[in-house]
Amino acid sequence: MLRYLELDGTLNQEIKPSLDDAFIVHCYKVMCITRLVDEQMITLQRQGEISFALASLGEEAAAVGSAGALELGDWIYPQYRELGVLFYRGFSIKDYIHHMFGDAKDLIQGRQMPNHFGSKQLNVVTVSSPIGTQIPHAAGCAYAMKLQKEHNVVICYFGEGATSEGDFHAGLNFAAVKKTPAIFFCRNNGYAISTPVREQFASDGVAPKGVGYGMETIRIDGNDFFAVYTTTKKAREHCLAGKGPFLVEAMTYRMGAHSTSDDPTRYRKEEEVAQAKETCPLKRLKLFLKKKGVWSDEKELEFYAEVKKEIREAIEEAKKTPRPPLSSLFEDVYFRMPRHLKEQLNECAKMFGDPPHA
Amino acid sequence: MPEMNIIQALNHTLKEELKRDKNLVIFGEDAGSFGGVFRVTLGLQEEFGEERVFNTPLSEQGIVGFAIGMAQKGMKPIAEIQFADYIFPAYDQIVNEMAKMRYRTGNQYSSPVLIRTPYGGGIHGGHYHSQSPEAQFLHTPGLIVVVVSSPFDAKGLLIAAIDAQDPVIFFEPKRIYRALKGEVPEERYSIPLGKGDLARIGKDLTLVGWGAQHHQNMAAAEDLFKKENIDIEVINLRTLNPCDEDLVLLSLQKTGRLVIAHEAPLTGGFGAELAAISQEKGFLYLKAPVRRCCGWDTPFPHTLEHAYLPDKDRVKKTVLETINY
Prior knowledge:
- The complex is a heterodimer.
- By secondary structure, chain A is an alpha/beta fold.
- Chain A has helices spanning 21-46, 60-68, 83-88, 93-101, 134-147, 166-177, 207-212, 225-240, 270-277, 281-292, 297-320, 339-351; strands at residues 75-77, 154-159, 182-188, 191-192, 195-196, 216-221, 246-251.
- In chain A, strands 1-2-3-7-6 form a five-stranded parallel β-sheet, sandwiched between helices. A two-stranded antiparallel ribbon of chain A has the order 4-5.
- The termini of chain A are far apart.
- The model of chain A has no long low-confidence stretch (mean pLDDT 97).
- Chain B is built from twelve helices and 14 strands.
- Chain B has helices at residues 6-20, 44-48, 60-72, 91-98, 101-104, 134-138, 151-163, 213-228, 245-255, 270-282, 305-308, 312-323; strands spanning 3-5, 24-28, 53-55, 76-80, 114-119, 144-147, 168-173, 181-183, 197-200, 205-209, 232-236, 239-241, 258-265, 291-295.
- In chain B, helix 7 (151-163) links the parallel strand 6 and strand 7.
- By secondary structure, chain B is an alpha/beta fold.
- Helices cover 37% and strands 20% of the residues of chain B.
- In chain B, strands 3-2-4-5-7-6-12 form a seven-stranded mixed β-sheet, sandwiched between helices.
- Chain B is globular.
């Protein structure tokens, strides 16, 4: 397992090529934003303000480290625990919170549950709930890039549970056979809701499956920002060189519940979680940055206060934002609204006292 | 105007469209140099190269999922599912991803994939090479469902499906792939999706069908006219979603009687939907109950398929019962 950054924040080997301090600090900040937003969303759900929340606590380095190694023209197929990727690409906290409320300013008009983010502008393909379905999409998208002769790659994220789905096998196989520029990034976080890896597969993790499909594969410490960053960079170059897809198995740990509908105390011990928290990616990177003298507790307090203020303001705004209009229930089913949907929209509008639609 | 069978019409159209649109890519199991098990894609790889026309691994969910990703990136994939009976491994990709892409992404992404697949019985294929699963896709908002019944329609509907901005499931009647010949214009034309064909004008009863069944319906109508002097109006729906409701209702207004015939099993078939529409919107036109003449509610048989399929004799019987109600 590839690791650069030890738990005490020291490097066990030199990172080549070296990284700019400002870049590392920026990535650390995005990881912090992700953590703070996630925590606040869980609270909001508990308060009954939003219907659902799902966090990436403990997996921020996997998301942000990989996003940092990509270019904006690269396409991203997230699962749902990659909020850090979205923030790294520049999605605002405000827009994200509108999405979490499913209000009129939500890019997807409240049509899916919270945490089903995406942004065409940022080349992040909107999340869907079924597990692993995005894997063959990523293969197809990467093949299209190849035909279009674009100098870009696709990255596709999923958890280790997704590797049991048929779509994982189909997607990796298609990607390898067609030699597509696709990076498959597996966050092996130990659990699929309550099911631990030992009940998920008998193989030695996910990595052998990549080898089985004939693609370059590596297992890394997914809580080590540097291992994630350098590996993704290498995978990207591999893809751009026309050598086919690349599988990364990033070992991490889901520090929180699967979602707000889950109770992990029923299936794992507090000691296990406490031990895993020692490997927290934020804690480790912070130690590194402090040792380098480019970050401090004071700076962090100040930064946290700023972010929390931004989150508070975004929540206040979302609370005041109306629901999406009734018409959005019927729009976008097809490119043009067919007659039967226009009839149904008008029937629905009548129920709610809305004026008829043309 | 050249005469072609359905296979030739499809092959000719795919070839012309590959020439016209660089974004068009064709793939499926054995769809490459072999030309597909029914030879619809014969010669296309040779002319357009392995990048644009190719074999895929044997995985329907992979084929459709791969196609979705290509479509999201702006290409026009035409994916072949070798037999409609084998579309089910791709069912999740079709109903949960392809059909909902535009909606669930807030119109940011779409997946206008075209899935071509041979369907239907009459070829001694047993239940895994004979089914008509169209109704399984009519219960999913976001899809367009087309069923071909002639060489002329094959070209016009295929072009409309290629031009569509929405995903299309394109059912091809393998039973009459080669059996039926007809004139096909060489120039590009499309048949609007959602427009049915009034194939025979009559006054006594409206008979609705699609695909290969349409020809059984026509044969029944001709027999009844010759032998019983009963004048049937025959409608070929061509597309089931969107459905040409107006054509059916206008005809019903004239005839007052409606029979729907399809190969798929009776229960939950599209005939049930048409029966519901006709009584909701045409109750006062009706002189007799709407009847359905369909496949039985059994798996598709092998040896006894002649007893399973609603052939012209069974259609005639249902029509006569409705006329004499």
